[in-house]
Design goal:
Strand content: under 5%
Low-confidence stretches: none
Helix content: 55-70%
Largest sheet: none
Distance between the termini: 42 Å
Structural class: mainly alpha
C-alpha cells in the first residue's frame, strides 16, 4: 500500500517504470487519495489509472471540467452505475464516444446513446448495441 503523498509523488515522477507501475497496481491509502483530491489536481490522471481506485472517487472526478480526465474515466471498466449515467449526459462528444466503446457500459445506457444528437455517437452506439446483441444470441 502506498500510504503517504510524498512516496506517491516520488513513484509518479520516477524514471523507473517499475515505480510508475506501483501507482497503478497498489492500493492507495485514504490519506493519499484525499491529499491528491485536495491539493494535487495535476495528479488526477495518475489517480484515475489506479486499478483499485474506489468508484466513489471516480464520481468526484467526473465533475472535473477537464475533458481528458472525463475521457480517461469513460474508458474505465470499473465505473459504477452513477458514474456511467453522468457520462452518458456529458457535454463532450469525445467523452460519450469513448463511453460507447466501453464494454461495461450497461446496455440500457448504451441504448440511450443511440438517439444522441451527434450522428457519429449515435452510429457507434447502434453498432455496439448490435454487436452485443449478436454475442448474446450465440
Amino acid at each position: 500500500m502506498i500510504s503517504n503523498i510524498e512516496e506517491y509523488i516520488r513513484l509518479c515522477d520516477s524514471d523507473c517504470r517499475k515505480d510508475n507501475r506501483r501507482t497503478v497496481t497498489e492500493e492507495l491509502s485514504q490519506e493519499v487519495v484525499s491529499e491528491i483530491l485536495k491539493n494535487h489536481p495535476d495528479r488526477y490522471a495518475w489517480l484515475i489509472h489506479n486499478k483499485l481506485i474506489p468508484g466513489n472517487i471516480l464520481e468526484v472526478l467526473i465533475e472535473n471540467n477537464d475533458e481528458d480526465i472525463r475521457c480517461t474515466i469513460a474508458m474505465k471498466r470499473c465505473c459504477n452505475r452513477l458514474t456511467f449515467e453522468k457520462l452518458v449526459h456529458d457535454k463532450s462528444d469525445a467523452v460519450k464516444l469513448i463511453l460507447v466503446r466501453n464494454s461495461k457500459l450497461p446496455i440500457d445506457l448504451l441504448k440511450k446513446l443511440i438517439s444522441d444528437k451527434n450522428k457519429e455517437i449515435s452510429k457507434e452506439a447502434k453498432n455496439e448495441f448490435l454487436k452485443r446483441q449478436s454475442q448474446i444470441s450465440r
